[in-house]
Amino acid sequence: MSDSSKPKLNAEASMKSTPRPDFKTVEASRPAFNTSSKWHFTQTPQPNWKPSDGANDKSKSHFSHKEIDPSAPGRLPVQNYKLLISGIVPRPIGFVSTLSEDGKSTNLAPYSFFNMISHDPPLFVLGFSMGQGKAKDTMVNVLATGECVINMISEDYIEAANYCSINSPEGVSEWALSGLTPVDSTVVKPKRVKEAVFSVEAKLVESREWESKINPGKKTGVLAIVEGVKFWVREDALDESGATIDPAVLKPIGRMGGITYNRVTEGFELPRPEYTEVIKDPEIEKLVKEAEGFKL
Ligand SMILES: Cc1cc2nc3c(=O)[nH]c(=O)nc-3n(C[C@H](O)[C@H](O)[C@H](O)COP(=O)(O)O)c2cc1C
């Protein structure tokens, strides 16, 4: 380790040690979970918005933006981590079930560096970080076996799912610690979570390893692209056509910054503009003329 990197690591350690007052005391000071808040639709923030109106709230336009170079000298990886996990929100959470290569250890853990990237074929990304250079069991298992089940987390079992992020040694199964129910998959070997309203059996398509820009040569993560090969949807969550999952049943949980989760109890609908329709309005036709060849 070079001398110049020593203070950096110390600073990193101090930044990572987020002061944690007794969580139960903090939680006790907060209102109880609002069980009466159920999924419902509202209007959009500005139902009278017209083309060219821009943002709804213009009162913040005097604020300037701070420019941040993610790999500036002295910038700590944990600073990028904290900024990104609090700014790229809310993130869906893939609750991933895997099996070790020898088939002896079952594993279950939440991953919010997760998203769907294609529907045909159904493709998903998972981002595994290498904290302190240690590979996560889920990553080792996905790369070794090429299989996983991605379960979507609901309000109904969020505490159990969160508990599965425990840094237990390999071989200690989060299934038993969480009390969640394993059910057989049909295409892949890892079990799916019965309590999940929606689960996807998936197979590894490809993976790519990343290394640090701040500490070159240090392996920092792995991206896995997996393909969904079987879907499981709880019957009461599907609409009559069998195509859509009801958010009131799914009760999805997302990830915000720090240790914050978000629930989703409100939504609004907003149709996408159809050019051939909107152009019939003379006002919009005028606006389109101005937009032609518009330069910044
Ligand atoms: C909601 C949530 C989301 C998480 N997302 C990620 C992630 O995207 N990537 C990652 O490497 N770790 C993530 N973690 C941390 C892992 O879940 C944690 O390191 C866990 O112990 C990994 O388990 P494993 O080694 O059994 O795979 C997340 C934790 C929580 C609670």
Structural commentary:
This protein is an alpha+beta fold and 296 residues long. The chain is 23% helix and 25% strand. It has a domain at 72-268: Pnp Oxidase, Chain A, CATH 2.30.110. The chain has a 7-stranded antiparallel β-sheet with strand order 3-2-6-9-10-5-4, covered by helices on one side. A hairpin with an 8-residue loop joins strand 7 (182-183) and strand 8 (192-193). The longest helix has 12 residues, at 5-16. It is globular and about 70 Å long. The model is unreliable at 1-10 (pLDDT under 50). The structure holds flavin mononucleotide. Flavin mononucleotide binds next to strand 3, strand 5 and helix 4.
What average pLDDT do the residues reach? 93
Low-confidence spans: pLDDT under 50, at least 5 residues? 1-10
Q: What is the share of helical residues?
A: 10-25%
Bound molecules: flavin mononucleotide
Strand order of the largest sheet: 3-2-6-9-10-5-4
- Per CATH, what is the topology of the domain at 72-268? Pnp Oxidase, Chain A
Largest sheet: 7 strands, antiparallel
**Rg over CA atoms:** 23 Å
